[in-house]
Amino acid sequence: MAKEQQYERKRKRLHITLCQEAHDFLNKSVTNASRFIESLIMNAKTRIQPVIMTVSRIEDGPGATRTHDLPVISRVQEPLSENACKIPGENSGEYSSGNIPEKKSRNEDLTSRVFSLKDIDDYIENALSGRRPKTIQENISAWKQFLGFGEVLHKKVGNRGKIVGLEAKISFDTITAYNNHMNTLKKSPYPGYIRSILQYFSKKRVDDALRDWSESVKQTPNTTKRLFAVEGDKAAVTFNDVKADIRIYYNHILRDDLGKGVSSKKSTYRNLVNILFGITTGARVEEMNRLTWTELDQGLEGGSFIVPAEYTKTNAERVIPIHPAIKPYLKILKAIYPDKPFNIEKFRDIRRDRDATLRLNQTRNFAVKYWRKYGIDEKIRIAIMGHDEGVIKKEIEQEEVKTDVSDVYRKYGPAEITDHYQKTVGAKFNPIPTEINIKKIKENLKQFFKN
């Protein structure tokens, strides 16, 4: 009796409901059911593998001696079948024993979950309301790709091989396979999308395992990190690179041997202006692509414009000044393309056709790298380029110690931002190479003017 008491601990009584096969297993094969269940829970909590549990089969145990807390590896030879115990309902925590709904779970076991393409509609409606169409489409594509790494249960293919229906069973192995695949690719927003989607459904279904799986979704590209730029990196752009591409576009515009291909001068000129606009505004590629002449006309007239929040990555309005040197180039662009100033898809095509090298996203890196040379205040630069609103807030809070709050906020008003830019970058940086003659450009493009 004394020996038995050394194992006594404070215990809590728990009433649980098991399927018949699980009940028979505990009754026939486990010497101490409560310790068996307790050990499973604690090992699951600590995530220790392989599982060490206080159990031996009755017929294999040492006579009538109970193993209790003696740690031995389970010698159970007859595991439960996978489909023995169905989970009655997706949110098992929402009911107690004796009040089990009749609805069957979509999931056949505890180690997998079933999802379909239709689930992304739920996520978009409740978690992505108001997001840009591109963001929504990227989430759909990411979800479709992710489901493909699971065990496909149903797949429907529509016209041109497009997948229009997909249902798959996912498990932690799915996460591992997905991570392994993404790690072979360049950095992508897709793993972040999948992590957010799984977190959403873990909360909706009250599913802790799904929550843990979501935290395991990550991308670690197998690339070497460097603390310096190398040739070909977008951060390696120099002003000589910029001038070289501007000359390439300029020389094509002046060509007189194009014949029927003379209309290519229009798109070539748009590329030229797109580069000038990029290096003088630091705008993101997608932001430039969304701009209309409504915003640019405002900039041409007043020296700056307000980019709408829905155009920006940070979903915040900001002031973008227009460099005085590029104004006449923008006016010619409007005469040729009165409907839409920029087109990033066409930019890529024309860049390849002209054997130019500068990618449009490198113009933003150029602004980060070179604007400082012309005396622009770092906080103003960040405010114009929309890098990090948190950085602006921190700088403002630091200045509030020395400056009246109203003075600080007035300092960052549209007029002050525009004035500071024009006195620094606008006055000290000439983005136009000396050999570029705007009169010759205008003469070669006048046949395409629409107003």
Question: What does this entry look like structurally?
Answer:
- By secondary structure, the chain is mostly helical.
- It folds into 3 domains: 1-85, no CATH class; 112-216, DNA polymerase, domain 1, CATH 1.10.150; 234-448, hpI Integrase, Chain A, CATH 1.10.443.
- Helix content is 47%, strand content 6%.
- It contains 21 helices and 5 strands.
- The protein has a 3-stranded antiparallel β-sheet with strand order 1-3-2. A two-stranded antiparallel ribbon has the order 4-5.
- β2 and β3 form a beta hairpin.
- α9 (239-253) runs antiparallel to α10 (264-281).
- The longest helix is centred in the middle third of the chain and has 18 residues, at 264-281.
- It is elongated, with a radius of gyration of 32 Å.
- The model is unreliable at 1-8, 48-80, 86-108 and 399-410 (pLDDT under 50).
Descriptive labels:
single chain, 451 residues, mainly alpha, DNA polymerase, domain 1, hpI Integrase, Chain A, 3 domains, two-stranded antiparallel sheet, 21 helices, elongated, disordered N terminus
